[in-house]
Amino acid sequence: LVFHNGAYVMLTQSLRVLLKRGVVRPDTLTEARGEVYAMALRMACQKGTGADFDRIEANLRVMEALANGGDMLNRGKAGIEFFSLITAAAHNEVIGIVTQWINALLGQTLLDRVAQDVQGSHRQELMPIRHEILRCLRARNPGEAIRAVGEYLLLAGPGVEIKNADKVVAP
Question: How far apart are CA 163 and CA 167, in angstroms?
């Protein structure tokens, strides 16, 4: 585990430096994110349990409650957790590690946007798509789940602007 965590931290640090320098563009990270999520969705449709999907549903309820209460910081964190829960439902450690470092980069971007009260740090129109993704998972329909994530990513935009790259840390 220490080796995995060490390798994970090195990968996260390397990627954030490449993003900051412009070597890796945010749109390519978004493309990679879509492909990684597609693999996770296929695996979650095959291996996910009712309990896995119930946790995702509970996460959606928490996100809605936090948004209704105006707690955008924790709502954003719950939004990132949504994809972590999908990855957990895939029951594949490698996909989980790759998703974690993508989420670490997105998480810092989210914290920056919420701290600056950037318009769009909360995108209510993404909630129905998250519910659609869950419906597709429960129906064991990876094609439709992947289509929904593609729609989600198009609406969400690149989502990675590394302004405080030194603050991006592995969770």
Answer: 9
| pTM of the model as a whole | 0.79
The CA-based angle 37-59-6, given to 5 degrees, is: 55
Quote the CA–CA distance of 26 and 33 in Å, as a whole number.
Answer: 10
First to last CA, the chain: 14
How far, CA to CA in Å, does 164 sit from each of 112, 118, 167, 171?
8, 15, 6, 16
DSSP letters, 52-110, are HHHHHHHHHHHHHHHHHTT-HHHHHHHHHHHHHHHHHHHT-HHHHHHHHHHHHHHHHHH
For 157, the 3-state DSSP assignment is: coil
Q: Do residues 84 and 97 make contact, with C-beta atoms less than 8 angstroms apart?
A: no
Return d(Cα 58, Cα 47) in angstroms, integer. 19
Q: What tokens appear for 23 in the block? A: 């070597």
Choose among 125, 124, 118, 126: nearest CA to 83: 126
The pLDDT tens digits of the residues spanning 30-52 come to 788 889 999 999 999 999 999 99
